[in-house]
Amino acid sequence: MIELPFGSEFSPSQIDLPELLVICKENEGNRELLEDTIKNRFFLHHGNGSEKNRRTLAMNCRLGMKSYGILDENCRLTGFGRDLYNLRENGEELYKALARHILLNLNGMGFVQCMQDMNAALEKITLQTMRPELKIRGITYPSGGKHPSIMRLWLAKAGVFSEKGYLVNQDRLNEILNGNDDMSKLRKLTEEQRYFLLALLNTGERGFQSAAQITRLASATYGATYPEKSLPKDVLNAIEAAGYIEVRKSTTGRGAKSHLCRPTQNAVKTLMEPLVKQLEAQTDPRLIEMLTKSIPDILRDIDSANTYTKGIALEALAFKLLRILGLDYLATRVRAEATGGNEVDLLFHSDRLVYTRWQIQCKNTGHVSIDSVAREVGLAQVLHSNVIVFITTGTVSPAAKNYANSMMKNSNLSIVFVDKEDIALMKDNPVAIVEVFDREAKRIMQLKKMHTSLF
């Protein structure tokens, strides 16, 4: 997870940036004098009349400038801070430079993309609703923090956001990023493709290199795995189509010719690596793209003839449905050492009254078997889950249901099944998920009541 920068009291609604930069320059290296000057200039009539509160506001302003990379630990202007100082008399260029810095170096593009996604999904944007959406993009901020609001205000000063609200001006965004719209293109690359590109950029070489060597570097650095025989089809072609690498076959050596690649001029611009890194912590970008769709649109994709599209759509549906129930997203695709090599599609949790962890398995198959249920029960012990939810485009076998009933009678585990008939109910009314879970809750309660009555 990456965190948005702290910005409390370093806000364009509270300070004048050109004047603040002059204050920082005149008081470099003297924290006490710097904070005292900031207090007297911007917070003298704040803090509810308390001198202590006013000093805290000034300190927070300094810390915000440090978090935004303008001041260093010793209260001196950083290199970027000096760049801003030199632009202080040109307001448009000043705020444009700060916005570019935020977008590329402070995870601002991930934040902006999240707001665009939420707007596309017609979701109401508040500090509360954006938190889980940012989390699936690997971005977080402390509870009660104003971090997103401060970032939005600075970006709005440069015209990236509307004066009020979270509407994004794409033309202005592209202008600030020198005409590049790479975030959306990078997001369409798979995790393995992005890691390959990062590994290639990390070498610092601009000539052609062995693609096989780059995959080994990406595997060692990021833990990614790559196919040996289908590397061009699965990895190289997509990166080349996006305009980030050039690929050619080697003319030396015997047998099958290996592939060589080099980064394009666009890929080595300073824009590229910061944007790729902002995507490292994110959920599968194709799932995020699916989450911008409405539930009826997702349900149409579930009927797709393409198996992969159906699978991603099913995960997106599960995500939307669990959110409707008021659960909070925890993680996506928990696998490997955490689960002994097996995979869990989604984890949600809730801290209402008592803490519960919900383990979600999406099955794009004809039926859920007893083996599938047994495997999830085993994983629940590892992940300390209280609830297992199967969402399937098919049916649940009688043997699987009987096994689930047996497990629920003898433990505090609850196992919920949502099958193709339940999904069909939601095509016209997504909130029908509440009725489905209410039905399952009553069934599970009856099972556990029957068991306790034997004592």
Briefly, what is this?
The chain has 455 residues and is an alpha/beta fold. Helices cover 52% and strands 12% of the residues. Helix 2 packs across helix 3 and helix 5 crosses helix 6.
Helical percent range? 40-55%
Distance between the termini: 48 Å
**Stretches with pLDDT under 50, minimum 5 residues:** 334-343
| Global shape | globular
The number of strands is: 12
Rg, alpha carbons: 26 Å
Strand order of the biggest β-sheet: 6-7-8-10-12
Query: Sheet bearing the most strands, described?
Result: 5 strands, mixed
Note the total helix count.
21
Mean pLDDT: 83
- What is the beta-strand fraction? 5-15%
Structural features, described:
The structure is a single chain. By secondary structure, the protein is α/β, with parallel strands linked by helices. 52% of the residues lie in helices and 12% in strands. It is built from 21 helices and 12 strands. The chain has a 5-stranded mixed β-sheet, sandwiched between helices. A 3-stranded antiparallel β-sheet has the order 3-5-4. A two-stranded parallel sheet has the order 1-2. α5 (91-105) crosses α8, α11 (191-202) packs across α12 (211-222) and α18 runs parallel beside α19 (398-409). The protein is globular. It starts with a strand and ends with a helix.
